[in-house]
Design brief:
This protein is α/β, with parallel strands linked by helices. The protein folds into 2 domains: about 40-110 and about 125-155 and about 245-285, D-Maltodextrin-Binding Protein, domain 2, CATH 3.40.190.170; about 160-240 and about 290-359, D-Maltodextrin-Binding Protein, domain 2 (3-Layer(aba) Sandwich), CATH 3.40.190.170. Helices cover about 45% and strands about 15% of the residues. It has 14 helices and 11 strands. Strands 7-6-8-5-9-11 form a 6-stranded mixed β-sheet. Strands 2-1-3-10-4 form a 5-stranded mixed β-sheet. Strand 1, helix 2 and strand 2 form a beta-alpha-beta unit. Helix 4 crosses helix 14 and helix 6 crosses helix 13 (about 305-330). The longest helix is centred in the last third of the chain and has 25 residues, at about 305-330. It is globular, with a radius of gyration of 26 Å.
């Protein structure tokens, strides 16, 4: 009996040894390498699925990631705030609920103070230009505010306009109007003109204007068009209110765990997705403006003297106020503003509210 038991043990040992030996001889190509690893990217944004951002920028950008990686990158989209409200999108990416996403820094007051410089009242005509400026500012000084993520690009959107249910031509017409603000410096601009800022989700603005709860909104043309706001307010003052600071971020762990060659593809494709796809460029924004005019929106160009009144208020009550606040908080506000002006000059972008004694 003992002899048979010993033989059985020996036989089992030999069998296990053979199995391990065969396993060790498995072809190396069956094991994933850095060159064959795949990854899925969950992309999130608060933009609605039918918007120009999703249709003309994010969809083709993600397709480009898949194509350049020969299918090793696959993507899943979560549009329209499917993973959370607009202000939560930075944390949605930072915490790993999504792998990559578009966030609006301005909707988190006080969290990215220096980056508010990208929201100054300037005339940026296309998102492609806004990203070139924002990326340069990120490299120069703003990178210190985004260490929780891998920041892929940064921008200040394009100039917002003053959209109202009734015509506005002077400061006196603005007095007491209730205007939806995107937050940040735009709130100060609205206050400087004598209007009352209101903050609410973009999805609530249509009904609020239709019911008379607010008199208008400060926002960029593409969002005004995407949310069909021209149906309830068809007057616009062509004065620059700047816009919000935004960007595309990637979860840091997801980025660091990706193979090096896929990281390179991700960085190249997302560095300036608007320039890459042709979505929301200068030409695309001009087409949206034409479409808004066709829908009956009346654009009013401020006469030079009236424009100077508005810009003087912005310079004193917004630009200099921001610099003073940054410096009081121990942050390099003046240096940041001057660096921003240098980038604007390089791209031929006007900054009519820049303090005249700083020229």
């Amino acid at each position: 009996m003992k002899e048979n038991t010993l033989k059985n043990v020996i036989a089992i040992g030999l069998l296990l040894g053979l199995m391990l030996s065969f396993a060790g001889c498995a072809p190396e190509e069956d094991l994933p390498t850095e060159e064959t690893k795949t990854m899925e990217i969950k992309f999130s944004t608060w933009h609605v699925p039918a918007s120009a951002e999703c249709r003309d920028v994010w969809d083709p950008m993600l397709e480009e990631l898949e194509d350049r990686s020969d299918g090793r990158i696959t993507t899943t989209t979560y549009y329209g705030g499917a993973l959370g409200a607009g202000p939560d999108h930075y944390d949605i990416v930072a915490d790993g609920l999504s792998d990559m996403g578009y966030f609006t820094a301005t909707w988190n007051p006080g969290r990215f103070p220096l980056s508010d410089v990208l929201s100054m009242p300037v005339f940026v005509d296309g998102k492609d230009v806004a990203v070139e400026i924002g990326n340069a500012m990120y490299d120069e000084i703003l990178h210190q505010e985004f260490e929780e993520v891998k920041l892929l690009n940064l921008n200040g959107c394009i100039q917002s306009y003053f959209w109202t249910t009734e015509p506005v031509e002077t400061l006196e017409d603005v007095e007491g109007l209730r205007m939806r603000s995107p937050g940040g410096l735009q709130t100060y601009m609205i206050e400087a003109l004598g209007a009352e800022p209101e903050f609410m989700p973009l999805g609530d603005v249509y009904m609020a204007m239709e019911l008379g709860d607010i008199d208008g909104i400060v926002t960029c043309p593409q969002l005004y068009y995407a949310f069909n706001l021209y149906e309830v307010a068809n007057h616009a003052v062509v004065a620059s209110f700047g816009c919000v600071t935004e960007g595309v971020a990637m979860n840091l762990d997801t980025y660091e765990q990706a193979p090096e060659d896929l990281r390179t593809i991700i960085e190249e494709v997302t560095e300036n997705p608007f320039k890459l796809t042709g979505g929301l460029t200068v030409d695309a924004i001009e087409e949206i403006m034409v479409s808004l005019a066709d829908e009956g929106v009346e654009f009013y160009e401020l006469p030079e003297e009236e424009a100077e009144r508005w810009n003087s208020l912005f310079a004193e009550e917004v630009v200099l106020r921001w610099v003073e606040q940054m410096e009081a908080d121990g942050l390099p506000g003046e240096e940041t503003l001057k660096l921003y002006k240098e980038q604007l000059d390089k791209h031929g972008v006007e900054f009519p509210a820049y303090p005249s004694d700083w020229e």
